[in-house]
Amino acid sequence: MKLPDVDKERSERPLSFSDFMKLYNEDLPLHFPRVSLALLREFRKMHATLFKGSNLWSLDQHRKKVMDWLTSRNRV
């Protein structure tokens, strides 16, 4: 019998702004920029199509995109 994939379930679970921020910043390498609620609001405004009328986030769908956005934003 196959056991549930806990990491996959965690990644796909719908999250609020604050829950996403907490999990995003958790275990992040030191050289990666951290997010704040203000940065997440800015990201959501700039990438509204990723949310399709929902205020929910998921690590699976948004974490890598936020990382890339923050990294490119800090280079400017």
List the SSEs and their pairings:
Layout: H1 6-12, H2 17-25, H3 37-46, H4 59-75
List keywords for this structure.
single chain, 76 residues, mainly alpha
What does it look like?
This protein has 76 residues and is an all-alpha fold. The chain has four helices and no strands. The chain has helices at 6-12, 17-25, 37-46, 59-75. The N and C termini lie far apart (51 Å). The mean pLDDT is 90.
Brief overview:
With 76 residues, the protein is mostly helical. It is built from 4 helices and no strands.
Helical content band: 55-70%
Mean pLDDT: 90
Biggest sheet architecture: none
Shape: globular
One letter per element, helices H and strands E, the order comes to: HHHH
Q: How many runs of DSSP E, i.e. beta strands?
A: 0
Low-pLDDT stretches: none
What structural class results from the helix and strand content? mainly alpha
- What fraction of the residues are assigned to beta strands by DSSP? under 5%
